[in-house]
Design brief:
Blueprint (H helix, E strand, L loop, with lengths): L1 H20 L34 E5 L7 E4 L3 E5 L4 E12 L5 E12 L5 E4 L5 E4 L5 E4 L2
Parallel strand pairs: 1-3, 2-4, 3-4, 4-5, 5-6, 5-7, 6-8
């Protein structure tokens, strides 16, 4: 029995030594390998709210102290609730909040993601995509 125990302990010692040296191979000493390029720098721009920047505006209705007038802007997104907003000419208007009232001089497309919003528009009837409930789009009279 002692001999068997000695043999088992000896085998375990050899295995332990093998495991501790595994992965200890010498590294690549090739001095001609090219250095790794640094990661590419990505410029992050700050989101500006309530202004049209490069044809895009985001309005947070919750932050408005009263009626808000933006003017012309190609793409306008309105988030938040209970805003009263007047816009100029807009190609695409997205309402992601609830109970906002928007009067727009002219709009090509209106998309609703929220509920209970009202859009009054001048110009031709816009394309409407309504993923919410109780939203209305009517011409100004």
């Amino acid at each position: 029995m002692t001999r068997r125990l000695s043999r088992t302990l000896g085998t375990l010692a050899v295995l332990a030594a093998a495991l501790t040296t595994t992965g200890c191979t010498p590294g690549d000493d090739d001095a001609t390998s090219a250095p790794t390029a640094p990661p590419e720098t990505v410029e992050v721009t700050e989101t500006v709210y309530g202004e049209c920047v490069d044809g895009v505006a985001t309005i947070v209705a919750d932050d408005l102290d009263g009626p808000f007038d933006l003017g012309d802007c190609a793409s306008v997104s309105i988030v938040g609730v209970d805003g009263s907003i007047t816009l100029g000419e807009v190609e695409q208007l997205v309402l992601e909040g609830d109970r906002n009232t928007v009067v727009v001089a002219d709009v090509g497309r209106v998309a609703f993601g929220g509920n209970g919003n009202t859009v009054e528009h001048g110009g031709d009837e816009p394309e409407v995509v309504d993923e919410g409930d109780d939203n209305t789009v009517t011409p100004t009279g």
